[in-house]
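Structure (tokenized):
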């Protein structure tokens, strides 16, 4: 199973689980929802997160 991260955008507050490839793309290009700049602090390994089930905020 690929390593997964919980991404929590500091600009638009979207929260979603991503894999390592998507994490790299978001770090390079910004949040896919708001295009805000993102740094490594916006990602927490899923294994260290209390997130479960639905990870989207509305």
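Design, position by position:
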């Amino acid at each position: 199973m690929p390593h997964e991260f919980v991404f929590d955008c500091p600009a638009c507050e979207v929260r979603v689980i991503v894999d390592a490839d998507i994490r790299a793309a978001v770090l390079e290009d910004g949040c896919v929802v708001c295009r805000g700049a993102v740094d490594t602090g916006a990602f927490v390994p899923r294994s260290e997160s209390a997130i479960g089930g639905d990870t989207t905020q509305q």
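Reviewer-requested clarification: The mean pLDDT is 87. The radius of gyration is 10 Å.
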